[in-house]
């Protein structure tokens, strides 16, 4: 029996900041997903690529330095913590820095190998001046700016298929001709005030597999029309699933898997590297939620 090809996966145990069970943000999914990846043969315990915390200088490429310093010191003002949705204590601060560095690492691995996946990231509501919507640092925006600044890439595409619009990424990257941001989301979902991406597609409540995938098939060619990216960041949030607590769409497991297969295969056929980040997914059933996220890694592996 031939060995499974190696899918580069970035993971750190401290991605899980150990929230109490039942918290609105299902922090336990990061630990459970890592275990599923081991159990299903995607990686062994020593097979994950492990990031260290992102440096303040990296974070300040996308965020105000004053906010960066507040997070690192675990002294985020209470009004901002309320917008984020949880206290930024030492564990959350470390988690945010690790997840951001993990997305940078996944991007560099993807540039080398074609595909790589971070088991965290996709914190797309974090804006330049502060976090919001369960997002502390905007890992994709930081990674995009870092790669461009270091001339590791000339142009970067962000395709965000989380159920919520990527408002923070759009805000941070606005006006940069070397970054194209694309968001396909539930139009009536959070945030109430959208920030214009390069391309936005707002879907009506209840959109199911067939209509969703037809829309995605029309969208994918538009993402590179007049734009030749060296790298794609793919936010593969599973909150478009019909069982998600915070989603308003109606995708099945099969629909999520078909979505991910389309994204990976479409860009790989064009020889464009893809770095995926976990994105949103909200359920008190941590095992079921983690298995939805596992579908992204299955699709990535199939596209190697």
Task: Write up this protein.
It holds the Pfam family Hist_deacetyl. One of its GO terms (molecular function) is histone deacetylase activity. The chain is globular, with a radius of gyration of 17 Å. With 304 residues, the chain is an alpha/beta fold. The two termini are 18 Å apart. It has helices at 29-39, 56-59, 65-72, 78-84, 90-113, 139-149, 167-173, 209-223, 253-269, 286-302, and strands spanning 9-10, 115-118, 156-160, 179-186, 199-203, 231-235, 274-277. The protein has ten helices and seven strands. The mean pLDDT is 97. A seven-stranded parallel β-sheet has the order 1-2-7-6-3-4-5, sandwiched between helices. It has one domain: 3-Layer(aba) Sandwich (Arginase, Chain A).
Task: Using the coordinates shown, work out and report the CATH topology.
Answer: Arginase, Chain A
Strand/helix succession: EHHHHHEHEHEEHEHEH
Strand order of the largest sheet: 1-2-7-6-3-4-5
Uncertain ranges: none
- Sheet/helix structural class: alpha/beta
User: What gross morphology would you assign?
Assistant: globular
| CATH architecture classification name | 3-Layer(aba) Sandwich
Averaged pLDDT, please? 97
Protein name: Acetoin utilization deacetylase AcuC-like enzyme
GO molecular function, one term: hydrolase activity
Family: Belongs to the histone deacetylase family.
Keywords: Hydrolase
């Amino acid at each position: 029996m031939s060995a499974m090809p190696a899918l580069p996966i970035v993971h750190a145990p401290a991605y899980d900041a150990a929230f109490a069970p039942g918290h609105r943000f299902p922090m336990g999914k990061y630990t459970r997903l890592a275990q599923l990846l081991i159990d299903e043969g995607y990686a062994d315990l020593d097979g994950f690529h492990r990031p260290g915390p992102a440096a303040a200088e990296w974070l300040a490429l996308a965020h105000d330095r004053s906010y960066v310093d507040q997070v690192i010191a675990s002294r985020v003002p209470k009004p901002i913590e309320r917008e984020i949705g949880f206290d930024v204590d030492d564990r959350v601060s470390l988690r945010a820095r690790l997840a951001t560095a993990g997305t940078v690492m996944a991007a560099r691995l993807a540039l080398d190998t074609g595909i790589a996946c971070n088991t965290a990231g996709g914190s797309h509501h974090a804006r330049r001046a502060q976090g919001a919507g369960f997002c502390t640092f905007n890992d994709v925006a930081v990674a995009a700016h870092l790669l461009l600044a270091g001339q590791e890439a000339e142009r970067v595409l962000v395709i965000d298929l989380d159920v919520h619009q990527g408002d923070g990424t759009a805000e941070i990257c606005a006006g940069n001709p070397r970054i194209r941001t694309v968001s396909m989301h539930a139009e009536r979902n959070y945030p109430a005030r959208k920030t214009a991406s390069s391309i936005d597609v707002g879907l009506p409540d209840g959109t199911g597999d067939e209509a969703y995938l037809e829309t995605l098939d029309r969208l994918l060619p538009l993402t590179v029309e007049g734009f030749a990216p060296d790298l794609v960041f793919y936010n593969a949030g599973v909150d478009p699933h019909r069982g998600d607590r915070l989603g308003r769409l109606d995708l099945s497991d099969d629909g999520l898997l078909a979505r991910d297969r389309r994204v990976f295969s479409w860009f790989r056929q064009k020889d464009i590297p893809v770095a995926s980040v976990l994105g949103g997914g909200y359920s008190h059933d941590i095992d079921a939620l983690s298995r939805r996220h596992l579908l992204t890694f299955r699709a990535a592996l199939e596209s190697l």
